[in-house]
Amino acid sequence: MPTESEAFDMGRLRWRCRRGLKELDVLLIPFLETNYADLTPALRIDFAALVEEEDVDLLDWLVHGLPAPAAYAALLNILLQRPLHL
Fold this sequence. Notes:
single chain; 6 helices; 62% helix; mainly alpha; DNA polymerase, domain 1
């Protein structure tokens, strides 16, 4: 679990959002750039933890719609409801 200071380190978060998989990159990078600042401190910590997860898990949760851990439910609800800009 990331520390609070790691959760607010934009450079580190930006690096972790660059996954090399287009499906994840088009979700995570724009979310960081346009929505992260509006998150509560608790959701920012959740986002920092989310981007530390394995790519295969992120694909399952974000792209394939498989259930994610309950700890990410509020964050994923926000992330998946924002419009995609491809």
